[in-house]
């Protein structure tokens, strides 16, 4: 079945600004479902979805699973360990075997860039990329953007800076594609050894100093610093990283205006972000998590061929309006 | 052996500055008459070459025939037949077999397998170091005695400058070139494609051009130090071209090759994660392609070699970062060069024959590369204009991993003759040459 997004959601690079807006708009009515006592609508009743997680994930896997269940889909979780994958089965064989059981969608998380596309090119089912290597993590990008939109409204001209390890971040790539397509101004800030060499060609502003980034930005999306980057020699130590690039209360206070703080999680408190910032009044980190479920519901619904204009109706009865995102 | 008269083709032989319509007579495994109108001797096979180019047989100095070790993906015999189908009368087989071709017995095995195949000639290249480990020098003398024509550690670049120095010095004794795959291993580690905007967007680890260029200049300087002959395999960047030019301007004994894919494709082919666009060195930028085309034209890069690297379908049918490097090339090389260099005005057909036949023969001191009277009767007859659609299922190679699948290319071998015997004729499987 092919809806307004095509067969698959592999990345934000291939979407238009209108398609991204469509997903965000479709997510709005779905936000409210999660606020109900009975968090379930029948939109995907009878659909079978496989969550194929070749890499560890807590937040993304659970978020997808909630989204699927709240739309009444039947779901199966497969992880790499304890499955035929650990017996040496190839990705394509795993997928074809699942498909032979007549599934409708696959949500895939994999350590190899391009794994989601590889799968999408070879099976009929809808494929949703839940993070492929260092390529893209489109639903994370979408939930970040939805969270920003909740606060800013139209994102055109809004200034968002991605901070940290851009080189290895699929979240950064999806954010850059998505935000630029919606007209936002995007910057990156991090040690040069953690920026792609070709970053100049991404059409983003580059800050070497976090103080300059804070001076410029209206929102900071603070990326997780993976500890293996230190052992691989990209940067000398977590301590120096915090001293030079850490988002601290002191640095934010110097800007003398409110700056929205996002983090895709999981956080290393005291490394890329200090606790008083993460837990502070301008942090929307938990709103991101809440929005994640709504955005994933919207993606599932649209890929299944759901009509965007019927999303409001699809959630059934008791519409409390679309103010769920406004809670503090 | 019956004489063969190749009648009415255009004889293109840069070794004697010949580029005219005329006949060519082969007898007793040698060229016995060339040019003008030749009457067929009694019992001669007459091959009509009207509209064809008749040239000295192509020689590929860089291919992987996988035997011994991976006979499931290629053998000396299937590789030799694929070569013949591509218009090659001789190929040089890299030593990255399993076990490694690093001793006289291993070299002799390939020579014997090639004799049994009785198709294109196959010359073994021996390893520089034992097991290609980059530690202990292999026995060049014995390998040359058994038929090796050069040494190389192939896909395992010689990381130690001292070992490379010794290899260049020691190889002088036997008058063979040392072929190096130029790749600084720490910079290239884990890389899956060219480093640049495309790798950054696709989230694939890149290999910077400098990983190649650092080793290019190191090897050129070691050739200067030792007086040895270094041959640089599959050059892929503009910077490498500039460094080779620098070395040649100073009279340093450096030669270099480039592959058809680096003359025709760019890193853009990797979008979509097509593993048939994965090779080492990786496809680079349009600017690099342009520099390489110019370098083949002006002779900075001496010759064209395929780096033919068959892989099993299952090994390529997987996640990009985990797929092996390499593509098949023997059966598309001529057409890729005609389509991308001749038809685009970089080379004339005489230049093509020079870069694919005369120069490889001269640099590697091999028979062939000339249609002069008395030379080995290694001849390629090709149709310079034939347009055909690449269908790997029709390849004689066991490999199917081609990035040109489905493309329409111009130029195709029509008849390949080795030592006076036809080993390939326009789509008809090889008849086998007498040994």
Can you walk me through this structure?
The complex is a heterodimer of chains A (328) and B (435). The longest helix of chain A is centred in the last third of the chain and has 19 residues, at 285-303. Mean pLDDT of chain A is 90; it is low at 317-328. The two termini of chain A are 38 Å apart. With 328 residues, chain A is α/β, with parallel strands linked by helices. Chain A is 38% helix and 14% strand. Chain A is globular. Chain B is α/β, with parallel strands linked by helices and 435 residues long. Chain B is 29% helix and 22% strand. Chain B contains twelve helices and 18 strands. In chain B, the strands form four sheets. In chain B, strands 1, 2, 3, 4, 5, 16, 17 and 18 form an eight-stranded mixed sheet that branches. A five-stranded parallel sheet of chain B has the order 9-10-13-14-15. Chain B has a three-stranded parallel sheet with strand order 6-7-8. Chain B is globular. Mean pLDDT of chain B is 96; it is low at 428-435. Classes of the chains: A alpha/beta (328), B alpha/beta (435). The interface between A and B is medium-sized, with 24 and 20 residues.
Please give the structural blueprint.
The complex is a heterodimer of chains A (328) and B (435).
Chain A: H1 17-33, E1 48-53, H2 59-70, E2 74-79, H3 91-100, E3 105-110, H4 115-120, E4 126-132, H5 138-152, E5 159-163, H6 170-181, E6 185-189, E7 205-207, H7 210-216, E8 219-222, H8 228-231, H9 238-245, H10 249-254, E9 260-262, H11 275-278, H12 285-303, H13 311-314
Parallel strand pairs in A: 1-2, 1-3, 3-4, 5-6, 5-8, 6-7, 8-9
Helix pairs in contact in A: 1-5, 1-12, 2-12, 5-6, 5-12
Chain B: E1 4-13, E2 18-27, E3 30-34, E4 45-48, E5 53-56, E6 58-63, H1 76-85, E7 88-93, H2 104-117, E8 121-124, H3 140-146, E9 151-152, H4 161-174, E10 178-180, H5 185-188, E11 193-194, H6 197-202, E12 206-207, H7 209-226, E13 230-232, H8 238-249, E14 254-258, H9 286-298, E15 303-304, H10 313-316, H11 333-342, H12 349-363, E16 379-389, E17 408-418, E18 421-425
Parallel strand pairs in B: 1-4, 1-5, 6-7, 7-8, 9-10, 10-13, 11-12, 13-14, 14-15
Antiparallel strand pairs in B: 1-2, 2-3, 5-16, 16-17, 17-18
């Amino acid at each position: 079945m092919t809806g307004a997004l095509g067969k698959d959601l592999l990345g934000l690079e291939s979407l238009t600004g209108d398609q991204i807006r469509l997903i965000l708009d479709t997510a709005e009515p779905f936000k409210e479902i999660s606020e109900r006592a009975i968090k379930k609508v029948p939109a995907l009743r009878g659909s079978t979805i496989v969550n194929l997680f070749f890499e560890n994930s807590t937040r993304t896997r659970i978020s997808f699973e909630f989204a699927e269940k709240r739309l009444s889909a039947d779901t199966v979780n497969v992880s790499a360990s304890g499955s035929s994958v650990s017996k040496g089965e190839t990705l394509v064989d795993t997928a074809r075997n699942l498909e032979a059981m007549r599934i409708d969608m696959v949500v895939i998380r994999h350590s190899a860039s391009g794994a989601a596309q590889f799968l999408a090119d070879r099976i009929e089912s809808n494929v949703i990329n839940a993070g492929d290597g260092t390529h893209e993590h489109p639903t994370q990008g979408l939930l970040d953007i939805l969270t920003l939109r909740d606060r800013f409204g139209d994102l055109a001209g809004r200034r968002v800076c991605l901070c940290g390890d851009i080189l290895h971040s699929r979240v950064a790539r999806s954010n850059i594609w998505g935000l630029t397509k919606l007209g936002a101004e995007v910057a990156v800030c991090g040690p040069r050894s953690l920026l792609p060499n070709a970053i100049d060609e991404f059409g983003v502003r580059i800050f070497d100093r976090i103080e300059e980034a804070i001076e410029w930005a209206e929102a900071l999306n603070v990326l997780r610093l993976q500890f293996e980057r230190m052992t691989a020699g990209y940067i000398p130590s977590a301590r120096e990283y915090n001293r030079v690039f850490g988002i601290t209360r002191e640095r934010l206070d110097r800007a003398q205006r409110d700056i929205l703080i996002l983090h895709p999680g999981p956080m290393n408190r005291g490394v890329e972000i200090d606790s008083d910032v993460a837990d502070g009044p301008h942090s929307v980190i938990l709103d991101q998590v809440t929005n994640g479920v709504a955005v994933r519901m919207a993606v599932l619904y649209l890929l299944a061929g759901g009509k965007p204009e019927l999303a409001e109706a699809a959630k059934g009865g008791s519409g409390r309006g679309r103010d769920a995102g406004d809670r503090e | 052996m019956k004489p063969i008269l190749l009648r009415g083709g255009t004889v293109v032989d840069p070794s004697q500055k010949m580029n005219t319509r005329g006949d060519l007579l082969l007898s007793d495994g040698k060229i016995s008459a060339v040019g003008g109108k030749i009457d067929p001797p009694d019992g001669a096979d007459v091959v009509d070459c009207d509209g064809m180019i008749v040239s000295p047989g192509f020689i590929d100095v860089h291919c992987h025939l996988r035997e011994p070790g991976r006979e499931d993906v290629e053998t000396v015999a299937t590789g030799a037949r694929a070569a013949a189908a591509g218009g090659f009368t001789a190929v040089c087989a890299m030593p990255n077999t399993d076990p490694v071709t690093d001793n006289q017995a291993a070299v002799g095995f390939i020579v014997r397998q090639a004799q049994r195949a009785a198709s294109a000639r196959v010359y073994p290249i021996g390893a520089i170091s034992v097991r290609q480990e980059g530690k202990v020098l292999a026995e060049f003398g014995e390998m040359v005695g058994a038929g090796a024509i050069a040494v190389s550690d192939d896909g395992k670049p010689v990381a130690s400058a001292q070992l490379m120095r010794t290899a260049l010095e020691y190889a002088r004794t036997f008058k063979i070139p040392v072929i190096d795959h130029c790749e600084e291993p720490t910079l290239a580690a884990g890389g899956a494609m060219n480093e640049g905007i495309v790798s950054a967007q696709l989230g694939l680890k890149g290999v910077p051009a400098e990983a190649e260029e650092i080793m290019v200049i190191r090897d050129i300087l070691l050739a200067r130090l030792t007086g040895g002959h270094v041959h640089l395999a599959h050059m892929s960047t503009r910077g490498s071209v500039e460094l080779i030019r620098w070395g040649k301007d100073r009279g340093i004994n450096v030669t270099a090759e480039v592959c058809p894919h680096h003359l025709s494709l760019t890193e853009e082919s990797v979008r979509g994660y097509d593993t048939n666009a994965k090779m080492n060195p990786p496809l680079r930028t349009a600017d690099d392609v342009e520099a390489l085309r110019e370098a083949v034209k002006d002779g900075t890069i001496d010759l064209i070699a395929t780096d033919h690297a068959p892989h099993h379908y299952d090994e390529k049918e997987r996640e990009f970062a985990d797929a092996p490097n390499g593509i098949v090339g023997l059966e598309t090389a001529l057409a890729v060069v005609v389509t991308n260099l001749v038809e685009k005005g970089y080379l004339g057909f005489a230049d093509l024959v020079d870069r694919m036949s005369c120069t490889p023969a001269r640099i590697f001191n091999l028979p062939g590369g000339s249609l002069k009277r008395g030379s080995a009767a290694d001849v390629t007859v090709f149709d310079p204009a034939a347009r055909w659609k690449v269908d790997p299922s029709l390849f004689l190679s066991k490999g199917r991993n081609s990035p040109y699948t489905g493309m329409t290319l111009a130029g195709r071998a029509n008849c390949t003759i080795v030592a006076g015997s036809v080993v390939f004729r326009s789509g008809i499987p090889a008849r086998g040459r007498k040994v």
